[in-house]
From TrEMBL:
Name of the protein this chain belongs to: DEKNAAC105243
Domain U3 small nucleolar RNA-associated protein 6 N-terminal: 9-92
Species of provenance: Brettanomyces naardenensis (Yeast)
Family stated for the protein in its record: Belongs to the UTP6 family.
Major site of localization recorded for this protein: nucleus
Length: 413
């Protein structure tokens, strides 16, 4: 037996003695536990150890702790119920196993994931922060880790400021990947949507009420600490690109959400649109096919917008469509998006459907008459526009509505 393994096992002797003293395990079981521990220690301290050895060791400890808790309940009438070393040593030992594992295999995401999962389940916030900090320092190019950390801060700790800063730091290292941009935009949509719903639900009209609500729901403390993303605790970086400057200039929604949608553009989604603009500029700068990349981003962002009914979706999509039309006024996909935008969030059962459809048709007719696009582009736009009217509305209409829509389609043909 190695000196290291012997040292770790000797430290566990008091716990085994405590389990026997409390009559939770008999001598034979204690001997079996020590034998298993010895076997695991040999495995993980050997040269041929693998991440799975640490995972199996930790799993054995979890199962043993479950058994101990069951026996505490079953034998509570005869066992000593006073708190002692065996009541809290298991979690410390499991954390120690994971710590040794990630130290030896820092690239094993399976080990890191199991470590994080156990820390979260155990409610050990300090350990969770420690694990995320170390992992982000070791793997700053791992987007999933950044997203996981931001999600934990937002959903578990309700710390919006820290989550936002984690997204910003992620983009400084991974600005060339689409996923973090979309997740950041989705995060801002989610937060703004919840904020607007709360204000509507609780009728938070005065500025004082809104400030108090922000403090209660964003976990902002008086010390000014910023959770997982505080200072340089997570990771340091060199600001050597324009993305960093753009991200630093983003408005802080926490301080800009007072007022109402009518008098505050941030509440309408200007921060989201700023993120979209920076994202498009970042990708098109290094892309040969600028339209393809711009269209890809725009389409995905609009699909995200579709999912948040509480936002001013028409305002957000209008900005995207306007930006596309300014850059690519003769592209059939962009033109079709612009012409059908009024119909995007209106269904046939809505009162404003008829007037909205008329507005869309007028836009189409005006574009056809005034546009300098090629005849081929106009033919393609006409075909796609009529196909949309048939498939989305005419096939589902009934009675007089179906007759009127049929006449409209024939007229446009």
């Amino acid at each position: 037996m190695s000196d290291r393994a012997r040292y770790y096992l000797e430290k566990c002797v008091p716990e085994l003695q405590d389990l026997e003293r409390k009559k939770l395990f008999d001598k034979k079981e204690i001997t079996m536990i020590m034998r298993r521990w010895t076997d695991f220690e040999h495995r993980i301290t050997s040269r041929g150890s693998k991440p799975m050895d640490y995972l199996n060791y930790a799993q054995y400890e979890k199962n043993l702790e479950k058994l101990r808790k069951l026996r505490v309940k079953r034998f509570r009438s005869i066992a000593d119920s006073k708190p002692s070393i065996s009541d809290y040593s298991a979690s410390k030992r499991i954390f120690f196993i994971f710590e040794r594992g990630v130290r030896k295999f820092p690239k094993s995401m399976e080990l890191w994931a199991a470590y994080l999962k156990y820390a979260k389940k155990n409610g050990s916030i300090k350990v969770v922060y420690k694990v995320y900090t170390k992992l982000l320092q070791l793997q700053p190019r791992n987007v999933n880790v950044w997203l996981s950390a931001a999600k934990y801060e937002y959903e578990s700790n309700r710390n919006v400021k820290s989550a936002r800063n984690l997204f910003k730091r992620c983009l400084r290292f991974n600005g060339d990947e689409m996923l973090p941009w979309l997740e950041f935009i989705k995060f801002e949509m989610n937060y703004l949507s919840k904020l607007l719903v709360r204000r509507k639900l609780f009728s938070l009209l005065t500025e004082r009420q809104q400030v108090q609500d922000l403090k209660e729901n964003e976990n902002e403390n008086e010390t000014g600490k910023d959770g997982l993303a505080q200072g340089d605790d997570v990771i340091t970086f060199t600001a050597d690109n324009e993305i960093t400057d753009e991200l630093n200039n983003l408005p802080d929604m926490n301080a800009s959400t007072l007022g109402s949608i009518e008098d505050n553009p941030v509440l309408r989604g200007d921060l989201i649109l700023t993120l979209y603009d920076v994202c498009v500029a970042s990708f098109t700068k290094r892309s040969e096919d600028k339209f393809d990349k711009t269209w890809q981003i725009s389409k995905k962002v609009m699909e995200l917008v579709d999912r948040f009914e509480g936002l001013d979706r028409s305002y957000l999509c209008s900005h995207i469509a306007r930006e596309l039309m300014d850059k690519y006024p003769y592209n059939e996909q962009v033109v079709l998006l612009d012409l059908t935008l009024p119909l995007r969030y209106v269904g046939m059962e809505d009162e404003e459907f008829v007037s909205t459809l008329q507005n869309s048709v007028r836009l189409y007719q005006s574009w056809t008459a005034r546009s300098k696009a090629d005849d081929e582009v106009k033919k393609e736009v006409k075909r796609e526009y009529l196909t949309l009217l048939r498939e989305r509305y005419l096939t589902k209409a009934e009675g007089d509505s179906k007759e009127l829509l049929g006449m409209l389609v024939k007229k446009l043909e």
